[in-house]
Amino acid sequence: MGGCFSDLEGGKQAVGVGFRSHQNQNQNQNPYPNQQHQGDNNNGAHNDAVDFFFKTKGFQPMFTQVELSFSASNLLDLDITSKSDPMVVVYEKKQNGKLQELGRTEVIMNNLNPEWIEKITVAFQFEIVQPLEFHVYDVDSKYHGITTKTLNLKDQDFLGQASCTLSEIVTKHSRSITLNLQNKTRHGGSRNLGALTIRAEETVASKIAIEMILRCSHLDNKDIFSKSDPFLRISRVVESGGSVPICKTEVINNNLNPTWRPVTLSSRQFGSKENPLLIECFDFNSSGDHVLIGKLRSSIADLERLNKERTGTNLFIPSTHHRKEEKMLKGQLFVDQYCEKEQFSFIDYVSSGFELNFMVAVDFTASNGNPRYSDSLHYIDVSGQLNSYQRAIMEVGEVIQFYDSDRKFPAWGFGGSTAGVVSHCFNLNGTPRDSEVVGVEGIMDAYATALHNVTLSGPTLFGPVINTAAEMAAKSLASHNGTKYYVLLIITDGVVTDLQETINALVKASDLPLSVLIVGVGGADFTNMEVLDADNGRRLEGSSGRIATRDIVQFVPMREVQRGSISVVQALLEELPGQFLSFMLSRDIKPLTSQQVPH
């Protein structure tokens, strides 16, 4: 995701090394110009679900997908003790003059000359003039851990803006344009606000993906009192001679012989196997002034050869005496694992018969307030205005039920007292054996009824609900061959009490076809909840030392969504297709063939 990582630990996380679902690319043109998106809160935002729906109706898109990448130079430095933490926000200017947001890059820490890795995918339509605006912000470090898409831009410092049409970029010989940044009155004045370079490249349709484990040995030490903290940045070299960053690994602290986590690159990122790549190894510095340890030119084909021959290749560094010459270093790069796989899309799976099964768990702890009073988070307004619990159920459920054929959803409550006994996983419909209700309407009805029959209590425990959902996912995996993927929505007003037990349950469930979406409602301090959402690049670790095989959690505080320009469903489901794909890849599960699809 386009995670905000202007904090120290966040700046050490990997970017662009795994699955990037098309749904995460914020392609906000409607590719079906004669069709209206019903119930669309994002002004016609492109996503896989909408595409799949229209294609099943016989409509085909009339556009070419292009990826926009960004770099900047000489940005304003608005921070006192460090440099700015810049992020780019891309807009399309509509015919009525209003700006429609297309997407946001990641935040780069302490850098006035950033090269962003996250790309924004845009549907280029030849017959339409598509004016674009690019706004650059300095993101305040106190917003670390918050998804960039939920950031309220009014809380960030404005660094400058620029504008052009999409056709101006794609018709350039280099397919890139450099624009001087201006202030909001569209004049730079006497102050130099820096420049923004935008590059456009048509997306590659190939499904080939490469998974590698990269390792370095005998790196030069750039630190005085400790060892270097190395990370790799991989860039694709383009025809003009420049390079476009496509991924960076996580930082490994205090290590001159690092082995990084597996890197998965799609052909959309590297182009062809012969396309030249620039691989740079840096020593991480919290100031943003990362020190180059060494670099080399290579290609996917070269890296495959290194793996087959079990040999390394030397890093180089520019000579201090002759700039055009390079000095060979002792440090080497190795490819310990190389695997070529077919990278299927989310649509490939759901169109072949895979399903998403929705489950929901509602917080019935006393901190929600008495449901009879209007200040309660559980208060049901007779006028029909939805409370935060109802809103989350409706918005998420309406999307996911599209992918569930029987529309039977398990629904639970936790932290409430039934028949004088506090339960941390009780059936919302009040029946002792069957937790399922029919449709989103069934969840809403069961929730409203439970408010009359359940006494609010506590504490806030997630472990029992997650374990119950995991048991269902495990049974399904054995009986349905991985064609069913479960999505558990937990809605809560407070910080989880059993944090370590919850982490243990999530680590155990990370091997299963399950994602957990958590919505925080009300005014509680949810800072400690961020640890459950591994957006900082660190996977959860159980009390036994076991590490989660993948990130399965997305946490969103409702108030952050309400302050920003993104809907609940967008914020929650942003990572879901990628989590779905990461599970299918880990189990080597492929979409069903026409012969396998049940009739």
Automatic annotation (TrEMBL):
Gene3D superfamilies, alphabetized: C2 domain
UniProt topology in membrane: Lipid-anchor
Keyword Nucleotidyltransferase (UniProt): no
Chain segments annotated as transmembrane: none
Biased composition (Low complexity): 22-38
Annotated signal peptide: none
The protein, known as: C2 domain-containing protein
